[in-house]
Design goal:
- The protein contains 11 helices and 10 strands.
- By secondary structure, the chain is an alpha/beta fold.
- It has one domain: TIM Barrel.
- The strands form 2 sheets. The protein has an 8-stranded parallel beta barrel with strand order 1-2-3-4-5-6-7-10.
- The chain is globular and about 50 Å long.
- The chain starts with a strand and ends in a 5-residue tail after the last helix.
């Protein structure tokens, strides 16, 4: 049975105790945990584990970030996002190794991250570089029997699928329907059909498309944007998906309230 959780970074926590309190305020008992604050020593690892355990909050999965990413515009994130930039590759590779070891200590079975823009042209040398770098990161996690899920949205589903085919079976996607809209990369209902065999986790996030091509769409509380949730969950049921559902909210000033809205939307589907 799928489980319902919240992304820790959505709640903008100041530390483990604040995270636990906010997860509880959302009416949830599970979290996808950002690993880098622990890796960097900003959060004490033992204290984080104890605080969440004492609050009976389960860590369903982890998330790792890449250094140097600039989300100011679609152009800046295309240049700086994920594992593509040469200037941050050594830093990101070392961090991924440390994060794999951390995830293993936490007993995680799944970790997600953005790999960056995937060139559609299979002859583009950047594409082969991206595949090689992803394989290196995946190997760190494979060594600990931890699956990896790439975030969707920065490219169309038919561009991502061949790249996934070049990865081990332990690699799939964290499907984010809002990202497809935010990046202008196609219909999320069609995309989840295409990627369904590799979907390992789903983010419950919503967005409205941009009115100006080449610019960001606008994230919205779940149920307020362009995602057709009835159709989305119809496909989820039709294809027999049973992966966990994690509410993500990266905008707005009412994060707890918006996460509760997303959780209510999921519960109304009768999946949890």
């Amino acid at each position: 049975m799928p489980r319902l959780a919240v992304c820790s970074w959505s709640l903008q926590p100041t530390g483990p105790a604040d995270l636990a309190a906010k997860v509880d305020a959302c009416g949830l008992d599970a979290v996808q945990l950002a690993l880098d604050p622990i890796r960097r020593g900003e959060w004490d690892e033992a204290q984080t584990v104890k605080t969440l355990a004492d609050a009976e909050i389960t860590i369903l999965s982890g998330m790792i970030e890449m250094a140097g990413e600039d989300y100011s515009t679609l152009d800046t994130i295309k240049e700086t996002g994920g594992v593509r930039p040469d200037s941050t590759w050594d830093t990101n590779l070392a961090a991924a190794k440390d994060n794999a070891e951390l995830a293993a200590r936490l007993g995680l079975g799944l970790v997600t991250f953005h790999i960056g823009f995937v060139p559609h042209d299979t002859a583009d040398p950047e594409r082969n570089k991206l595949i090689d770098r992803c394989r290196q990161i995946v190997a760190f996690f494979d060594a600990h029997n931890i699956q990896i899920a790439f975030e969707t949205g920065q490219e169309a589903a038919d561009t991502l699928l061949p790249l996934l085919a070049a990865m081990p079976d332990s690699v799939g996607v964290n499907f984010d329907p809002a990202n497809m809209i935010l990046y202008g990369m196609g219909d999320p209902i069609d995309a989840i059909r295409t990627l369904a065999p590799r979907v390992k986790q789903i983010h419950i996030k919503d967005a409205s498309p941009s009115k100006t091509p080449g610019t960001w769409g606008t994230e919205q509380p779940a149920g307020s944007g362009a995602v057709d949730w009835d159709a989305f969950f119809g496909v989820y049921r039709e294809l027999g998906l049973a992966c966990d559902l994690v509410v993500e909210r990266e905008g707005g000033t009412q994060r707890v309230e918006d996460v509760r809205t997303g959780a209510t939307l999921v519960r109304a589907q009768g999946l949890i």
